[in-house]
Write the structure tokens for this entry.
Amino acid sequence: MTIEYVVVMPALFLALFLGVQVALLYHARSVAVAAAAEGARVAGANTATLTDGLTAAAAFVAAAGGEEVLAGVRVTGTRTLTEATITVHGSSLSVLPGWTPTITQTVSVPVERIT
């Protein structure tokens, strides 16, 4: 009976850690895409600038948990006459030693204009 525990317990712990890691990755990805969407929405406003969008994306990540959710956040973007694009880069937390998964999410929106 103890031999079964020697095999089953490590398998259960592995499944537990993998489940937690998948949840951490999914949450970090969700925060990154939401921050990029918020930044792109702000940058795409008629009277806004790219700096407004970058600031909004960084503020969104900070409000969503900051380094506790998405570590080493870097927000970049572009704004042309027709399109605003924001990209959020960061690292997800990891329960697996030695592995730091990176997250990159990009959102583009058309720039508002009066016609």
Residues 31 and 61 are 7 Å apart (CA to CA). The chain has two helices and three strands.
